[in-house]
Design goal:
By secondary structure, the protein is of the alpha+beta class. Helices cover 19% and strands 45% of the residues. It has two helices and six strands; from the N terminus they run βββαβββα. A six-stranded antiparallel beta sheet has the order 3-2-1-4-5-6. A hairpin with a 6-residue loop joins strand 5 and strand 6. The longest helix has 16 residues. The N and C termini lie far apart (31 Å).
Length: 103
Amino acid sequence: MDLKVPITIIDELSEDEIQSTGLLDMASGDISKVEYEDYNVATEDLPARRSDYEFTSGILSNRGKDVEFRIDVNRTTGQYSVSANELEEIKTRAASLFAAKPN
């Protein structure tokens, strides 16, 4: 099954944050099609390579409900991914949260 879901990606810096969007592959944990908002990688380098980079998180949203999770970043290639353990946690939390009836 090829299930890729849209997510918001937030690279946390010391005094700022860089937002982007991407597609999370729910089978492998790989994140693709990353598009930065108001940030030019060509002139400013990958967020994870900056000296003020701290960590990256993700948000999976559905009908106004969010699941937040940790994202791993390969600081050399800039590839985003989610570990197998984190991916299982996302699936569990998303299933219960998104299956709940709307208020």
